[in-house]
Design goal:
The protein is α/β, with parallel strands linked by helices. It contains 11 helices and 12 strands. Helix 1 packs across helix 10 and helix 3 runs parallel beside helix 5.
């Protein structure tokens, strides 16, 4: 039984924090942000000290897993120092990062030394032209080199994340699985979430369900049900005869809200209780009005949990249900 003091009105214990350290990114992925993205002024972003204070409050309340996100977290100056402080917290079972991989060639070893256990690396295509179309940056070689650098550092787990879109990269599903199997990596396939207004594609046309992706994979590989769990929303299958697990994150086709154990804090200090809802609590204002008041911060977080909704209501039509982009929320 978890000792978390964070229990929502539906009896779900919150043991997992996704902490965004920046809204900035060196890519402009089409499903994550607009090409001419306007980032928050630096004064509105939590300082490294404030980020640690937030993490400390959640750890005190029983959170056991923290995933550092962005934007691209590895572009945040001073991040390795923050990670080292979190990595030293014995209360944490898992410290992870979601990254686009662009900075791993130079930072992977430092991340491991700081105590990062696991990496999630975004990889939507193995074709240079398509990668550049998705990321609006021609950086595939840089990302692939980063993946190889990470593999050499002894992380407890490295997982690829691929957002699959019909007619754009769904014909690469088998290639992506083969890439993961050959390197002993896990991979999750993600249904695109309707966050922010996009112009590069029509979501109701490009939507590709997890069932469709799994059907493609099973034409080549045997998938065996797995009880593997990382604390997130992926449902996993083992690729028979390999060490690779394939996960499916299915916010549309297989709603995972019933087992939700997580909340997010944005780089601007907003506590987001549900990815599919606009409501958020401004922790930054509270901390700046009452600097150093850890008990007040913990109480505000506990009180906010009583407003956590039961579930999201994502649809695949073109209507924007949540105005903020994923880069603003934290992956």
């Amino acid at each position: 039984m978890s000792d978390s003091r964070l229990v929502d009105p539906f009896g779900r214990r919150i043991t997992y924090l996704r902490l965004s350290v920046t809204d900035r990114c060196d890519f402009r992925c089409t499903y994550c942000m607009s090409e001419d993205m306007v980032f928050a002024p630096r004064a509105q972003i939590l300082s490294l000290e404030e980020l640690y204070a937030v993490a400390d409050a959640f750890i005190a309340l029983g959170v056991k897993r923290i995933r550092v996100t962005g934007g691209e977290p590895l572009v945040r100056k001073g991040l390795v120092g923050l990670l080292a402080k979190l990595g030293a917290r014995e209360e944490l079972d898992d410290l992870a990062i979601t990254t686009n991989g662009s900075q791993l060639q130079t930072l992977a070893a430092q991340l491991r030394e700081a105590g990062v256990d696991r990496l999630n690396i975004s990889l939507d295509s193995l074709r240079r032209d398509r990668f550049a179309e998705f990321a609006r940056r021609d950086r595939l070689d840089q990302v692939l080199a980063g993946i190889e650098a990470a593999r050499a550092c002894g992380f407890r787990g490295i997982k690829l994340n691929s957002v699959i879109q019909k007619g754009r990269n769904d014909d690469e599903v088998i290639d992506l699985v083969a890439f993961a199997v050959e390197r002993g990596l896990d991979i999750s396939f993600i249904e695109e979430m309707p966050l922010g207004s996009v112009s590069s594609h029509q979501r109701e046309i490009t939507f590709c369900s997890s069932d469709e992706v799994r059907e493609r994979i099973e034409a080549r590989y045997t998938l065996v049900p797995s009880d593997h769990a990382t604390g997130g929303p992926s449902r996993y299958w083992q690729v028979a005869g390999s060490g690779t697990r394939v996960g499916f994150i299915s916010p549309h086709s297989n709603n995972f809200c019933g087992s939700c154990n997580r909340v997010r804090v944005t780089a601007e200090g907003k506590l987001v209780l549900c990815l599919g809802h606009e409501g958020a609590l401004d922790l930054k204002s509270l901390m700046r009005r009452h600097p150093g008041d850890a008990e007040r911060l913990r109480q505000a977080i506990m009180d906010a949990l009583q407003l956590k909704p039961e579930k999201h209501h994502f649809r695949t039509d073109e209507q924007v249900q949540v105005v903020r982009f994923m880069s603003m929320t934290g992956g």
